[in-house]
Every structure is written in structure tokens, then in C-alpha cells.
Amino acid sequence: MAFLEIDGLKKRFGNVEILKGIDVELEKGGFLVLVGPSGCGKSTLLNTIAGLEQITEGEIRVEGRAINDLHPSKRDIAMVFQSYALYPNMTVAGNIAFGMEMRGVPAAERQKAIDKVAKILQIGHLLKRKPSQLSGGQRQRVAMGRALVRDPKLFLFDEPLSNLDAKLRVDMRIEIKRLHATTGTTIVYVTHDQIEAMTLATKIAVMRDGEVQQFGTPAEIYNNPTNIFVADFMGSPAMNLVPATIGGNGSGLSVVLKPDARAAISLPLANAPAGLSAFKEKPVIFGVRPEALTDPEGAERNASNIATADCHIEVIEPAGSDTFAVTNLGGKAVVARLRADAKIQPGTVTPLAFNLTKAVFFDPATEKRIL
Amino acid sequence: MSAVSSPAPQASSGARARTINRIVIYGLLALFAIFYLMPLFVMLVTSFKTMDEIQNGNMLSLPHAPTFAPWIKAWSEVCSGLTCVGMKGYFWNSIKMVVPAVLISTLLGALNGYVLTKWRFRGHILVFAMMLFACFIPFQSVLLPMATILGSLGRFGVTLQNATGFNFGLGNSTVNLVFVHVVYGLGFTTLFFRNYYEAFPTELVKAAQVDGASFFQIFRRIMLPNSLPIIVVTVIYQFTNIWNDFLFASAYAGSGDVMPMTVALNNVVNTSTGVVEYNVNMAAAMIAALPTLIVYVVAGRYFVRGLMAGAVKG
Which of B6, B12, B226, B267 has the largest count of CB atoms under 10 Å? Predict the structure, then answer.
């Protein structure tokens, strides 16, 4: 039995179904990230866990106990909001202690708890200030302090970093990860930023239109996306999704790509997924991440299936740590990730290595992965 | 040469046009200000003059020998109808009416605004629209129905008096006026608070819910402490309206020693025995106007700020 279980959860507003049957579970001490584009229902899902929204169908259980009919304050959760939601009329200490005050905790005990949290988050010198006198990062800390002080079973974070500037966001991301590692709390975290999802999560639920598209560890989501949406959404730069056809010579299959105005490229597949033989001579979507499409010298040494093909390089994007080369396959721009010092010129034809062990195939009709 | 020097005259002509614009704008503003302040000025100077000076002197001239006698007479001796005890009793009548009416209508308006924005229910827009409608109902059209209702409440008060020995204020003219003004003011106060709370971050309410605060705890600890600008607006608006009200006051408390200030002032000015004492009348009118003036001066700087708040989301 998992620590947090969400079972067939549905949420309707009138006739509109916002959440269409969500099944997710999380072990104790886990870090679940709900990620997806805006309007996918991830914040609504978080609000239903918090009890700020009622659910229409299904069940939410924490440690085996259904909590979906309990008042938010009775669920033993703490929430960090996108806008931090610090009470402007109270000091930092007052903000942190408000929940305890509402539960009738004696003043001395409250003070002890405030001091403890202030020490963890290093906000001791801010306790007497009002939220309006704090910087963005400080407000973020106070908001986390308000959640931490309750020592809840479950932490809920609703896009907590989206209001910070880029540099601070990275710092706070590391801080949240450290906090999770040191306190061992169970966290559900909503974001639309797939990098936050990859770096923080132990489990990711990729959502779209009120449905979980895929639920798994970051590695599973990244390496084995179940459909085109997940493949496209996770990873930066995004996975190259190229229209292709499957060719066959005898028992072996190959993937045939059509570069612009040049002869078709045929890449032999040594370990094609079993389902792919049904697509012989049919169109598929060929997915390959930029890091699996490299210069031949930079290709992964121990990959079993590497095919090389000449590609026409249209644009070069030096990014410092890497160089990205853009070529055109099947009418789409395809990004290859080269070493930073790769000697390559735009407008030339250069061999690129396709790491086909990392390649995935999708059915263009259903958009599902071909396994 | 001409090409080099030409920008200078252009710039100076632009500056001249600006100066002329300024003069026209400020001149007009000054004119309007004088137009509005003139009656106040006349009232003030007249209230400090003796009757001799009023009858023989210029209306606009400053008093030669300023005297507080008219003010003292207006406060404690002037006749309203046949009773000659000054305005002080009626002044307190108005205070006793206006303070509870303003407090209750403001508090209820805040509560309505809180519910209509943060605890939305099916049909909340309809309820708000109907409350808004209260802002457009003319006073005159509610006079008779309200009189009937107040009459019934009065009879109910008598029944209570007989049954329990206490009438809970029902039938008392001041209580009646408080009731009328609260009911009539609710539309406006709800409108003010609803618009203010519309822009109030809902996440604060959610955070307080997670923190375990109840409906009224959120209202008292989170909403009200962050509503100062709109509270000031509502208080000024309600205070001015209720204090200045004449129609309801004369209809439901138009005689005897329960009259509010406005009705009493009217009676003072209309009492025609002998000479009309302009200086006393002016002093009485000033006394009647002072509380609203004080409220504006004390809280006025929040007024505009509060009216604007909520109109533009920050």
C-alpha cells in the first residue's frame, strides 16, 4: 500500500470534465511532480488533494485512510502557493505561526516551533518583518517555513518557483531538493517546467487535458515516453519527432528518412521493437533525442546499434557547453547535439551518428508508442 | 544661421503655449473653487457677526467684532418649533443614529462582499445584481412600504414588551432610522466591498483554510485587516449620506425630541417669530455640517485611493 493513493479521481464543473479519472500513487518520502501545459488540470488535482476543491468521483487516500471528505485543515497537509499567499497584515513570525494559533497551540510552544523552522531556512533575522519588506526569495522561504512548521504528512507545492527570476529559481530548486533529502517529507509538486520535474521528482505524472499521459520515474518518462505528447513535452531541446517509413529487407527492419531534396536515408534497425514489423512499408513517427544524434566521434561508445548517415547542416547553434546542429529530415527541423568543439560548418553535408538503441517509434494515427 | 537659430524660438513658443494652458486650467479651477467655497465663506462669517452688523453691513465682509454668541445660542438655546433647548439634543440624536447605522451597514457590506467573492455559490451573480438594484431604487418609492413595516415592527415591539418586559428597541424612532439606513445602505456597501474583494488574492483565503481558520476567522483575521482603504471609503460614504438624510428622518422621526439634526435644522430655520436670526441659523447649519467635514478631513486621503483600489488589478 502506497502512502498517497489517488484512485479513479474525477472532477466535473457542470458538464465539463476537468479531471477524467486520475490514478496515481506515491510512496512515503517520495517526491511526485505533476507536470503539463497550462489548463491540463494539474493545479486542480493538487487543490483536490488539499481539499480546496471537491471531487466528483473517486478517492484520495493517505496511509490507507480516505481523506477526500475532510476539511483542508483536517487532512494533515501543508501547501505552498504560487503567489506565496503570505498574510500581508502579519509579521513573518505571525505568518508561520498562524496555523498553530488556529489550532490553539500555546504561545511558548509556537515560539519554539518558529525558532526551529527559522533556523532550518535561515530566516531568523526576518521574523519581525512584514511580507511587503521581503524580497521574492525571502517570501518563498517564509512560505516554505509556514508549511514546514506544521510537520505535515504531505507537502503540496503549487508552482512555487514560477514567480522567481531564472537564477534564483535554480537556487531555490536546489534548496527544495536539499530540504526533501534532509527532512524526508512526502511532497506533491505542480509545475509546468519540465526541467523542474526532471530534477526534483522521484515520480512524475505528465498530464494533458485532465488525464495522466504517463506516470513513472523521471528516467522512464524521459527514455520510454508512452506517446508523442510526453516525448515532445519532456526534455530540452525537445525530442526530434520525424515522419518516416519502415523499410524491410528479409528479417531486418530499417527506418527510412526523407531529407529535403536528397536521397532517402535508410538506417538498419538491429533491435527494433516487436510491434514495428506490423508497420512495414507504413508511415511512423521516428523519435530521437538530440543527445542520441551526434557527430560520429561523439557517439556513445557501447551503444549496440549506431547508424551513420550524411546530413545537410542548415544552422549551427553554439551553446557553450554543446553545439547544436540543425538539419532537415522528413520536412522537419532536427536538432543534433555535438561536442562544443565539433568542427562543423553550416551549409555542408556531414555524417551524423544515430544512436538507434535510444530511438523510439510512434504510430502516427494513435500517437502511441510502438512497442 | 537661420537653420541654427530656428529651434530656439520654437521651443520658447511651445513653453509659452504650455504656460497659457496652465493659466487657463488653474484659473478655471480657482473660479470653480471660489464658486463652491463662497456659500461656506458667507455662512462662516455670518455666524460670527452680530445681528446689527448683518443688517447694516456687507454680506461678504469679515466680522468687525467676532462673537461666539450665535454658536452658543444655536447649540443650547435656539428654538425648534416651540421647544427652545438648542441643537445639542438633536445633534446627539443624529450621532446615536449614524454611528450604529454606519458600523452595521459597513460590516454587513464587508461580509456580503466576502461571501460573494470568496465563498461563491450557485446564483451568486444574480444575488449581487439584485443587491445592486437597491442602489437604484428611489427613496420616495420605499417611504410608504417602509412605514408599514416599521409600524408592524413597532406593534411587535409592544407585544414583546408585554410578554418579556423589554421591547428590544422595536418601535423606537432612532432604532427605526438605523434599520432603514442599514437596509438602504447595504446595496452600496456590498458593491464597494464586493469590487474590492474581487481583486483580493483568493490564495490568501485558501492558505488560511489550509491553516485551519474558520469562515469568520478568515473574515476577521485576513480580510478585514487588509481592507482599510475600502472601509474608509464606505464609512465616509455612509456617514455623509446618513447624516445628511432628510427624507427618511422627517418621515419616520419628524417631530418631538427624537428628530435628527437635519429635521431640527429645518425647523429652526422655519421657526418664524420676530426677526430671522441669520447668524444663529448659519451657526446651526455649520454645526450640522461639521461632522461630515471632519470625517472628510480625517479620512479623505484614503477616499480617492480606496475608490480606485480594485478598479485596476495590481
Answer: B267
Pick the residue of B119, B120, B211 with the most A CBs within 10 A to test the interface with A by mutation. Answer: B211
* B203 contacts in chain A (CB < 8 Å): 81-83, 85
Residues of B in contact with A71 (CB under 8 A): 209
pTM exceeds 0.90 for this model = no
pLDDT digits (tens, 9 = 90+) for A307-363: 888 888 999 999 888 899 999 888 889 999 998 888 888 888 888 999 998 899 999
Question: In chain B, where does DSSP find H-type helix?
Answer: 2-5, 7-47, 51-56, 69-76, 88-118, 124-133, 139-164, 173-198, 202-210, 215-218, 228-244, 247-252, 261-270, 278-308
CATH code of B88's domain: 1.10.3720.10
Instruction: Please indicate, yes or no, whether residues A68 and A213 belong to a single structural domain of this protein.
Output: yes
Question: What is the rounded average pLDDT of the residues B18-33?
Answer: 94
B210 closest CB neighbour out of A77, A87, A88 = A77
Measure the CA–CA gap between A215 and A209, rounded to whole angstroms: 15
What is the pLDDT averaged over residues A93-111? 93
Using a CB-CB cut-off of 8 Å, the residues of chain B touching A82 are: 203
Task: Pick from B210, B219, B313 the residue to mutate for testing the A interface (most A CBs within 10 Å).
Answer: B210
Q: Which of B238, B240, B279 is nearest to B262 (CA)?
A: B240
Per the structure, the complete domain to which residue A153 belongs is given by: 4-233
Cβ–Cβ under 8 Å, residues B100 and B176: no
If one counts the domains in chain A, the total is 2
Same-domain pairing of A301 and A227: no
The answer as to whether B46 is a domain residue is no
Contact A88 B212 (CB under 8 A): no
Distance of alpha carbon A22 from alpha carbon A210, whole angstroms: 8
What whole-number distance in Å separates Cα of residue A96 and Cα of residue A120? 13
pLDDT at residue number B313 = 35
Give the distance from residue A180's alpha carbon to the nearest chain B alpha carbon, in angstroms.
Answer: 21
Residue A206 lies in a domain: yes
Which range of residues forms the domain containing residue B138?
Answer: 69-308
Interface of B with A in 160-219 (CB under 8 A): 201, 203-204, 206-213, 217
